[in-house]
Amino acid sequence: MKTVLRRMLAGTLRARAALLARALLVGTAVLATTGPAAAQAPTPTLAPDHWSVGALRRLDAAGLLPPGSDWGRRAPREGDVGRALAHAAVVAGVQDHPLLPLIADWSVRFVAETGTVALPVLAPARVVRITAEGGYRYRTGVVLTGMGYENVDNWTGAPPAPDTATALLAVAIGTRVRERAWLGASVEARHGNMRLPAAEAVVRLGGFHLWGGRRVVGMGPGRGGSIVLSGTSLDGVGLATAAPLEPSGFLDVFGPLSAEFVLSRLENGDSITEPWFAATRLAISPHPRFGFGLTRGDIFGGRGNAPITLEHMLKLLVGKHSGEVGEFNNLVLALDARWRPPLGALPLRLWLEWGLDDSAGAISNSPANVVGAELGAVPGLPQLALGIERTWFHPDCRCGNTVWYRNWALTGGWTDERRPLGHMLGGDGTEWRGDARLDAGRATLSAAGWTRERGPHNLFAPERSGRATGGEVRAAIRLAARWSITGSAWLEEGADGWREHALALRLRGRLH
Q: Going residue by residue through the chain (512 aa), what tens digit of pLDDT does each one get?
């Protein structure tokens, strides 16, 4: 009996050692191209629904992210993911952390998808990546946001969007020029038409990345959405810190600092059209267990609006209304905080986002709040993560503050192409949301359910006012080293009989 037990223990130790070696090897390989030799190399962005976004949240809850990582970056850069996995592999290996097997799987998956790993002495001056994607998408019952301000006299209501049922084929190509630049674009065929869903050039300038083109941008800590910018494709330019900055002197009390700025133009409004949009995010981490962030968005100018002058821009910067009667700009601002309570081995993260729309006093008279909690790994079942979130937007207070996401002059409201920039609740309402995610080897499964109560002044009123319940399931399976398949199903139903649902299936692989 003792011999059997010794053999079992030896086998367990060998398996554990092999897992640790695998994680450290992959982490070191990732670090070769995203670590010290290329710590600030430009890389493309990933969509908010990419599998790695949930992985980063789990690592944050476990305290395994690199110091100064911005927990509110909803569309992370590939380089951020690579550095996070490399750091987590090393720390989890030393700690013999329960998430170590998952980190090893995520690292292998990341390397297979991006194909950017090479030993430093063998790393080519230029890396070319070609990926192909094919699939099918079906969606029906969608409505677009209304336009105007007051329900009683100039609000259009929410018009229906065309139903879609189409196959799609996409090809993406990207190249990294040494450690200085990334150039990439994707072409998609859908409905017999060609479109360019993403195209960006990213250049490293000292400790910053300057980009131009079309990319997904999202800012805020919530799982179901954020107050200012939940995640949308924008055509424009941007500047962001390549890695967290380390303040010196008396400023080091604030900890590492991450910053991002985006400037774009929107399709929005009727009397005033094609306004400009600027978004800024700052995040600090005074302590590894907690951090603070600020996200600000401004819609301003445009055809038919007051001209862009130095006076108007200075007033915009300090948050004052400008133009002849305050028509020049519309501001949405949010403050957020994130905390990991000292609960031993329990990987729990809590967050709060508190926002205002446009006017002085709104942060107390008519705020918006997103509050959530996430368990990064269930004790005894580390493959499973759970989360819960509560969102509420204060209704029209008739106290001098504006209605959420609406603007009397920029009548398109807080939208682009009649789709919300901020939370999908659309303002004036409440939402409860629960999430679960299971990582099991080659597969990632996730599910979410929510219940919403939209008031009469939300962006989808009156068609989507009242109570609604919905849910979503997603699955991502790695079929081979370079190929994966993803599928999703989405459904929301209103108490008064409306229904919106969607299905999607995609096969994606790296050709080179």
A: 444 334 433 444 445 545 554 555 455 444 444 444 455 789 999 989 899 999 999 999 999 999 999 989 999 999 999 999 999 999 998 888 999 999 999 988 888 888 754 333 334 445 788 999 999 999 999 999 999 999 888 999 999 999 999 999 999 999 988 788 999 999 999 877 888 889 999 999 999 999 999 999 999 999 999 999 999 999 999 999 999 998 888 888 899 999 999 999 999 988 899 999 999 999 999 999 999 999 999 999 999 999 999 999 999 998 888 888 889 999 999 999 999 999 988 999 999 999 999 876 677 778 999 999 999 999 999 999 999 999 999 887 666 678 899 999 999 999 999 999 999 999 999 999 999 999 988 899 999 999 999 999 999 999 999 999 999 999 999 988 789 999 999 999 999 999 999 999 999 999 87
Contact between residue 392 and residue 433 where contact means Cβ atoms under 8 Å apart = no
First CA to last CA across the chain, in angstroms? 53
Taking each continuous run of H as one helix and of E as one strand, the counts in the chain are: 6, 20
Residue recorded with tokens 């554990």 = 16
Specify the residue for token string 């131009």. Answer: 212
Sequence-distant (6+) residues with CB within 8 A of 230 are 48, 74, 218, 220, 420, 421, 422, 423, 424
Q: Which two tokens stand for residue 147?
A: 């336009």
Contacts of 148 (CB under 8 A, 6+ apart): 154, 155, 156, 406, 411
pTM confidence score: 0.89
Helices (H), 35-99: 51-61, 78-95
> Residue 66 corresponds to which amino acid?
P
Helix (H, G, I), strand (E, B) or coil at 503: strand
Q: Tell me the C-alpha distance between 80 and 453, whole Å.
A: 36
